[in-house]
Specification:
With 361 residues, the protein is an alpha+beta fold. Strands 1, 2, 7, 8, 10, 11, 12, 13 and 14 form a 9-stranded mixed beta sheet that branches. A 3-stranded antiparallel beta sheet has the order 5-9-6, with helices on one face. A hairpin with a 4-residue loop joins strand 11 and strand 12. Helix 1 runs antiparallel to helix 10 and helix 2 packs parallel to helix 5. The radius of gyration is 20 Å and the shape is globular. This is Penicillin-binding protein.
């Protein structure tokens, strides 16, 4: 873990609410988290105004509260849309050059030794329709991987694993790890360099890092388990060895506020514009409502993504209206490891923000 000794602090509170409605929302969210025995931090967006509310400890042993400025949270699979957005940037940037590619380009251009690569397209990776069914990307192999070695391991693992028919949907980290390798090959720079220049610097993010770049003075949180009984049990944290295995698919750490800024940046021109975002979320290879790292619902009016890690108790969930005016970004570090139960917590808050607008799952 990235850890610097810190004085014990109490749970961070949001600043004094400027309105009675924000005070009411603050109390509602904290009461909802308490009722469901979860701990974490939520950025609530209501009518275009974000409000961040935290509850419980990010690190109980050191009494570091959720929402403390020292803490950056794992995004898990919420990172995938950022990786996908960088691919769309490169599609735009390479037009008319020798490196030009589209969603229809076969990935054998970059992975000539990968099984079925001459039939799998970039779009297949972006929509999880590559037929890749390889597992074990989240089984800690006990060593720290560089980006290129993590990608090479995935290629070898795919080659030794069974595959399904291309075009069938199978959610799989391997697809996005391969996209990370494509970004590296096209630009001649690391994924870390690309996300720094294309996302972090563009949005002037101050609390967003890949795991290996979390600086001294910052820390990632501990996760805890609770099924309605005692709090802060079964403490577990993300090991560098595990996180290094999944570049582009789960090694980004940030805050709920800054993740919300990334979502806004996907359509306001700072990362992508609205046409780019439509391209990203309506790829021709999609067979379910997933495309480019997001699920779209309600005639494209709702965007949704969930993330977790095997063996720890984190749960991340984002659900926003397509115009980013209402919704939540929720990072939980104490859960019962049940995705639907975590979404029940978020949906209760979403219903309070704008009833009958969002989806429960």
């Amino acid at each position: 873990m990235a850890v610097t000794p810190l004085a014990a602090v109490s749970t961070t509170q949001v600043e004094a609410a400027p309105s009675s409605s924000q005070t009411e929302m603050y109390n509602f969210v904290r009461n909802t988290l308490q009722k469901h025995h979860v701990r974490g931090i939520v950025t609530v967006v209501k009518n275009g105004v974000p409000q961040t509310i935290s509850y419980g400890y990010a690190w109980y042993g050191k009494r570091i509260g959720n929402g403390n400025s020292k803490v950056v949270y794992p995004t898990a699979s919420l990172q995938k849309v950022i990786t996908a957005a960088m691919v769309v940037q490169l599609i735009n940037e390479t037009k008319g050059t020798n490196n030009e590619f589209t969603q229809y380009t076969k990935i054998s251009r970059w992975y000539p030794n990968l099984k079925n690569a001459d039939s799998i397209t970039v779009g297949n990776l972006l929509t999880h329709t590559s037929g890749i069914m390889a597992t074990k990307t989240e089984v800690d192999r006990g060593r720290n991987y560089s980006e290129d070695k993590a990608i090479n391991w995935v290629v070898n693992n795919i080659n030794s694993s069974p595959s399904d028919t291309i075009g069938n949907y199978h959610y799989n980290n391997s697809n996005y790890i391969l996209l990370t390798g494509i970004i590296r090959q096209i630009t001649g720079r690391s994924y870390a360099d690309n996300i720094q220049s294309r996302i972090i610097d563009k949005l002037n993010l101050q609390n967003t890092y890949l795991y290996q770049n979390i600086p001294k003075g910052k820390t990632d949180p501990i996760s805890y388990y609770s099924n309605g009984g005692k709090n802060y049990q079964q403490a577990a944290y993300l090991k560098k060895s595990l996180v290094s295995q999944i570049p582009g698919a789960g090694n980004l750490f940030t805050t709920t506020e800054e993740y919300y800024k990334m979502q806004v940046g996907l359509t306001d021109g700072s990362i992508l514009n609205k046409n780019d975002f439509y391209y990203l979320t309506h790829l021709k290879s999609k067979v379910v409502n997933y495309s480019g790292g997001l699920y779209l619902y309600n005639n494209d009016n709702i965007k949704n993504a969930y993330g977790s890690f095997k063996g720890v108790h984190f749960g991340t969930w984002m659900q926003l209206t397509a115009d980013n005016q209402n919704g939540i970004v929720m990072f939980l570090n104490q859960t019962d490891d049940n995705e639907n139960n975590q979404k029940d917590v978020g949906y209760e808050i979403l219903q309070h923000i704008k009833p009958n607008t969002f989806v429960a799952r």
